[in-house]
Design goal:
The protein is mostly helical and 480 residues long. Among the domains are: 115 residues, Phox-like domain (PX Domain); 204 residues, Up-down Bundle (Substrate Binding Domain Of Dnak, Chain:A, Domain 2). The chain contains eleven helices and five strands; from the N terminus they run ααβββααααααααββα. The chain has a three-stranded antiparallel sheet with strand order 1-2-3. α9 runs antiparallel to α10 and α9 runs antiparallel to α11. The N and C termini lie far apart (105 Å). 22% of the residues are buried. Belongs to the sorting nexin family. This is PX domain-containing protein. GO terms for molecular function: phosphatidylinositol binding. One of its GO terms (biological process) is early endosome to Golgi transport.
Length: 480
């Protein structure tokens, strides 16, 4: 390879380092690279010229201390509370108070709060996902939009609070889901020091970049639908020749865990529904016993029936609390991990996409080398120059406007592209392994804490039920 090619390769390797968690805000003397769009994967195999993989930007050395702050020395706690309805009618929306406590140096303060709406949460997820999933990082998914619940809140009278009446359960479920999502994101050592994420928590500005997918029907939604169809077809039809047994084992493990968690979640939802029905039936028993006590002429029996009604009424409340425990402590934890397994599959698919780019680049390089070799053997000078130009394809790259320069032309040899794609494949493979190790530690700890909390909560409720029945026994024995 020529010295010029070696220099180009060194420049590419420097550009290829990683994502800049400062979003490109760096020293004025640095030249920002123009970010390129990655085409649909399904079209890669049919493309005659390799499409450039998205350029990675640098993590400055000054931020590495924050990125590596997952040692326990730093903490961040986020609470989502006080849902409030803003406006009236179908244009209204809910805002949530997001309160943060942290000692991470990247934040300007240690205790602060701001108001955010649901689309803001979707917006910060989209920003983080667009930057980090393609690097193999696991970005926690945001809660899905609930059209029915949102509509009920929008059409409710202005004077009624969104957290009362018929909407109380749905509003609390959304608030809890948003709190879990933002805290899971904050536990990631890289995501929590991203400038967009910090701005989401710290900024007092009302308008933030929001997700474009909050609308039920929109042009963007249609485009996303077609893209998802293309991605799904590509996942089904393309089979990667895996050379690392770790990924084969891990993909099988993720698929098995995901399938079993799906079954567990379905059973938990059924349990929640049944427990709610049990609570309602217990309440009916209480009302019936109370009505019977008023009609009973026997004084002792009437008093016992009245005591039974009080006991059943108390147990009804406990049954409802048990249902909430089933839902918020266990069922929602399982649901969150179903979403996280989806994020893991997305990271694995990004690796497959990079492998496709690499193989396509290799095929194109081999093809052009063979063409040039045939022309040399046939002494076709007219075709030889054309083949040489195909091997050394050029593209334009914008130079920073602060230098008042026009578009510069930079030579990128196909050989450099192959090495560049191979490097990215190796880097995303290593990153996924690191992310999975962190995820497994977090998952085991999270499930352990959730199960212990759930068991303790259920035992406390059962003990309370026993105490209620023990208190009722004297009333039953007084019947003569």
């Amino acid at each position: 390879m020529s010295m010029e090619s070696v220099d180009d390769l060194h420049d590419l390797q420097r550009d290829f380092a990683d994502v800049d968690i400062n979003n490109g805000v760096s020293n004025i003397d640095d030249e920002p690279d123009e970010e390129e769009e990655v085409p649909a994967v399904a079209a890669v195999a049919n493309n005659n010229s390799i499409n450039e993989v998205v350029m990675h930007r640098r993590i400055s050395s000054g931020n590495m201390q924050d990125v590596l702050s997952d040692s326990g020395d730093y903490f961040i706690e986020i609470a989502v509370s006080e849902p409030q309805k803003v406006g009236d009618g179908m244009s209204s929306y809910l805002t949530y108070k997001v309160t943060t406590r942290t000692n991470i140096p990247k934040f300007k303060r240690t205790d602060f709060s701001t108001l955010r709406r649901f689309s803001d949460f979707l917006g910060i997820h989209d920003l983080l996902a667009s930057k980090y999933i393609k690097l193999g990082k696991i970005v926690p998914p945001a809660p899905s939009k609930n059209i029915l619940g949102t509509t009920k809140v929008k059409i409710s009278p202005q004077q009624s609070e969104p957290g009362t009446g018929v909407n109380v359960e749905w509003v609390e479920q959304r608030r809890a889901a948003l709190e879990r999502f933002i805290n899971r994101t904050a536990q990631h050592p890289v995501l929590r020091v991203d400038l967009d994420f910090i701005n989401f928590l710290e900024s007092d500005q009302v308008e933030l970049p929001r997700a474009v997918n909050t609308a039920t029907l929109s042009g963007a939604a249609v485009v996303r639908l077609f893209n998802k169809v293309g991605e799904t077809v590509n996942k089904i039809t393309y089979k990667m020749d895996e050379n690392d047994p770790w990924f084969d084992e891990k993909i099988t493990e993720v698929e098995n865990l995901d399938a079993n968690l799906q079954r567990l979640y379905a059973a938990l939802k059924s349990l929640v529904t049944t427990r709610k029905e049990l609570a309602n039936l217990t309440g009916l028993v209480a009302k019936s016993a109370a009505m019977l006590s008023t009609c009973e002429e026997h004084t002792g029996l009437s008093r016992a029936l009245s005591s039974l009604a009080d006991t059943e009424e108390k147990i009804e409340i406990l049954r409802a609390e048990q249902s909430n425990s089933d839902f918020y402590i266990l069922a929602e934890c399982v649901k969150d991990y179903l979403g996280l397994f989806g994020a893991i599959k997305s990271a694995f698919h990004e690796r497959v996409k990079v492998f496709q780019y690499w193989q396509n680049a290799q095929v194109q390089l081999t093809k052009r080398r063979e063409n040039r070799g045939r022309y040399e053997m046939a002494n076709r000078t007219d075709k030889l120059e054309q083949a040489h130009q195909e091997v050394e394809e050029v593209r334009k790259r914008k130079v920073c406007q602060k230098f008042n320069a026009d578009n510069a032309v930079i030579k990128f040899q196909w050989q450099v592209k192959v090495q560049r794609c191979q490097q990215q494949f190796e880097e995303i493979s290593a990153e996924i392994k690191k992310e999975m190790e962190r995820f497994e530690l977090s998952r085991v700890k999270d499930f352990k804490n959730s199960i212990i909390r759930y068991i303790e909560d259920q035992m406390a409720h059962q003990q309370q039920i026993i105490s209620y029945w023990e208190a009722f026994i004297p009333s039953a024995r007084e019947i003569v």
